[in-house]
Amino acid sequence: MSIGADSKTINSIMPDLIPTFNVQLANKYFDKPDYVEGKEFAITTKIDGGRIIAIKENGQVSFFTRAGQKYEGLVDLEDEMYRLMPDNCCLDGEITLLARGNLSSKEAYKETMKIVRTKDKEKHGIKMQVFDWMPAEDFKKQKCDMPYKYRRIVVNNLFDELTFRYFELLPLLYVGEDTSKIPEILEEEMANGEEGIMINVYDAPYEFKRTNSLLKVNAGLILYVMLCIQVKMVQLVSCLQIRRCWIISIHQIKNSKTLANVSVKRINNNTVTFKVSDC
Question: What is this structure's pTM?
Fold first, then answer.
């Protein structure tokens, strides 16, 4: 019988009555480009893989999709996590090819999915690229207040102390408050055949929902922009269409001493609105 209330509503009245399974999901950076201004943030590569949650609790190892369905047959990952990972450990990341070679991000994703979706009892040739960590009990409770910077310290120490073959920690490409690094690192990652970058707000807890504390910047329509403040014009120098979204990169700024602020205020389909402030 339907009672007209979902699990979230019921759990708000009677906590933990209905088990839930959610993961932290990213919003789009250019929906709120000002959100990270003045905040410390970290940048990592955006991996084009299958989301995977790895849990070791009371000596038992399990792997789940972002929807909470169990991955089966990941024998290499299971064995290595059982032998090497500490107990009460939850890793968040993406499942990808063990050896990508010269494949592009999209090609590697297709090959990964072929392995994951096969009906074979044992699935080899894949690894987990880890981008976050928390205690297993926090994931089970679906509440983790530990800021990202401290979660990152724990997982960094874990991978510094142990050698893994089937688990790889995504390196931090940048940590700081300089938002000009976002388009700069994005272009570098695109040149390496990656899908884009991720931005983690350093002081933010892990939220089991879509959040601005985790932002994604996909490879999209790149505009190399030259700003000539003297004549108040924006000249498009060159552009490269890869996917749907817009990403702005300042290629060259002339007379920059007169430039106080340049920011993208709205990006919607083919419309780009700039806010330009002079000193």
Answer: 0.76
